[in-house]
Amino acid sequence: MANISISQLADEITQAVKEYTEDVTAGIENEVESTADKVLAETKRLAPRLTGQYAKSFVKTDKSLPDNRRYVIWNKKKFWLAHLLEFGHAKSGGGRVPAYPHLRPAHDKHVGELEENIKRIIRNGG
Questions:
Q1: What does the alpha-carbon distance between residue 35 and residue 15 come to, in Å, rounded to a whole number?
Q2: Which residues are bridge partners to 97 per DSSP?
Q3: DSSP3 helix / strand / coil % (the chain, rounded to 5)
Q4: Residue 52 φ/ψ region, left for φ over 0, alpha for ψ in the -120 to 50 degree band, beta for the rest
Q5: DSSP 8-state symbol, 99
Q6: Beta 58-62 vs 89-90: how paired, if at all?
Q7: CB of 35 within 8 A of CB of 109?
Q8: Rounded to whole angstroms, how far apart are CA atoms 14 and 7?
Q9: Angle at 117 between CA 83 and CA 105, to 5 degrees
Q10: Is 4 helix (H, G, I), strand (E, B) or coil?
Q11: How many CB atoms are located within 10 Å of the residue 58 CB?
């Protein structure tokens, strides 16, 4: 066994923890972006199609902060229509238009996977 000083040991431990943290952070950031891509694709697939323009106009926007990776999936051209289609709405002459859920099912399908993948990344160190 090699003889090293306490300060050298402390430096080595600090360096190992720093490398682990950087690897885990990079892995989580990649996983979050990958999951956002999956949610976007699933949303486009589930979106109601009359002409197809509504589904095509969904985009992923990066709303990240320095220590917080975040993406927003939204409809760039018809953002006001997303809520009405997702939850249904009242007709002007009475009655209701049925709901066409497409955002929430896409989110729910992939967020559970994201949590499990983040746990795996942390366990494996990146």
A1: 30
A2: 89
A3: 60, 15, 25
A4: left
A5: P
A6: unpaired
A7: no
A8: 10
A9: 20
A10: coil
A11: 23
CA angle 5, 11, 12 (to 5 degrees): 90
For tokens 């009655």, the residue is 95
pLDDT in tens, 38-82: 999 999 999 998 888 999 999 999 999 988 889 999 999 999 999
Return all residues near 89 (Cβ < 8 A) that are at least 6 apart: 96, 97
Contact, 40 vs 58, CB < 8 A?
yes
Q: Find the farthest-apart pair of alpha carbons in the chain and give their distance in angstroms, rounded.
A: 86
Length of the chain: 126
Tell me the whole-structure pTM to 2 decimals: 0.84
Structure tokens at 30: 């990649």
Cα–Cα dist 114/126, whole Å: 14
